[in-house]
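Re: that chain you flagged

S.,

Sorry for the slow reply, it's been a week of failed gels. I finally had a moment to sit down with the sequence you sent. For the record, here it is as I used it:
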Amino acid sequence: MKGFLILCYMSPLLLLFPNLVFGSHNYGEALSKSFLFYEAQRSGFLPHDQRVQWRGNSGLNDGKASGVDLVGGYYDAGDNVKFGLPMAFTVTMMSWSIIEYGKQMSESGELSNAIDAIKWGTDYLLKAHPEPHVLYGEVGDGTTDHYCWQRPEDMTTSRAAYRIDPSRPGSDLAGETAAAMAAASIVFRNNNPAYAEELLTHAYQLFEFADKYRGKYDSSITVAQKYYRSVSGYADELLWAAAWLYKASNKQYYLNYLGENGNALGGTGWSMTEFGWDVKYAGVQTLAAKFLMQGNAGSHAAVFEKYQEKAENFMCACLGKGNQNIHKSPGGLIFRQRWNNMQFVTSASFLATVYSDYLASAGKSLKCASGPVSPPELLDFAKSQVDYLLGDNPRATSYMVGYGNNYPRQVHHRGSSIVSVKVNPTFVSCRGGYATWFNRKANDPNLLTGAIVGGPDAYDNFADQRDNYEQTEPATYNNAPLIGVLARLHGGQSEYSQLLPVAIPQPKPDPEQKVAPAPASDIAIEQKETTSWVHEGKTYYRYSAIVTNKSSKTLKNLKLSVSQLYGSLWGLSKYGDSYVFPAWINSLPAGKSLEFVYIHTANSPAVVSVSSYTLD
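Prediction finished late last night. Pasting the structure tokens below so you have them in one place:
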């Protein structure tokens, strides 16, 4: 009977398109290309190891008008705005992908790129949270940005920064950012414990802020309403943040929060047919089901069983075997909406993949209205969606740019559609970009490798046209869930139980760089407070830091990470989110020292660590 059911599921595609011949996909190649897309979306000072060479530095004054450093982070899609809610969700899902499938990513050689992609996001989110009850949730605004068609390097549009605080709350934004930092702290726990602790501290503060001062963020940051309206409200983000804080900290408080608020905040009541940057319930329910299968629910077991029931309703709806099923196109793609439908495809595929592995580890099957479903069947669903995305569809089109032979060439994306500033630095004006580049009926001059576009309509139709933003615009949150699925399909199932705590493997270092712990045996860093003073009621502290080359060779290419710095620094040059030698020296001979100083408002030194260096 199982074989018959599967045959019936596949037969509409075969009957409608009898000449389709599908080949196996290189999931490892698709995984590698996904991370290149994130490098193309970077804002701020680009690092020396930037692989997407057609991009340049941009948004270098972000936050300056508000007296805060908001340089960095990601542009969300084809525009040049930094929207906090989808960016935080992107970081959460990238982190979840690594937490579940970091071993497979390590074996494919992509773990280092995955961690770099997360850190580019979390470094920005830390900047955006300068005080416990203040969070900046947007830089730029969609209205002025969409009026122009410019490369990020040429932006003349508003770079105003918008924040939430106790008088202008945003529990959904603060909750998602707390979830992102908590999830990312798990990723960094083994290879950068100080950074992980910093992330977790911010996550605690943001959850307390979100829960205490409740409100929808788009009622406070109203410029976001037209682009990222919080339709679901903030209840799902409160539960989502609590789930991730429990997973990151193992503190009973957050498990109790899930148990005691599941009904009031909708976690045990809503059966969802979507999961994404706005609606988190299916994600909460999947995590809660995992906690239950791990035996961690304790006195809240009855509540967590309700979470699991709703999680399984979602899985069954994806399979078409529930009481309320998700629509599928004739070619078999789940379809939710016309505008960027692919975001729901990748997120549903991720939940199906992890839940399949949870069930397999627990020795259980999925309970659907039409009968039990084995874990492999659930994974097969996820694979079918990924295969469709990569080209197994009626149009034989890959919806990942640069993968396969037939993929979108006129992507709705400012940076990729305009000649690189490195090829032609001539300024592209606000409206001139539309006339010269947007309306061009030609392929993009820059390949946006790895980008997942919005995808086809409900009938598998797709028009590769730059002005067709519903189908040809990519987004960071399209890729984030997919990287986990690709790693799983490429690397196979782990030999360990997916219900046991997993240690993230150490990323493989760049062979040309010596990655050093802090303090490194070759390098000594000594800090001391030299003076302090009070100005307008605030105390300032001056610190001196001495970096000494203790090796017998010349120290070159030094990169320092400086965190928990609440002021200005002199004596080093800023390079991206790191610090390097000042302009007047390019190396440090054996036994020699370099001094830099900083002044800030904390009565404790900044955290200074060695990121990388070479010895010559």
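What I noticed first: Residues 84-108 form the longest helix (25 residues).

Talk soon,
D.
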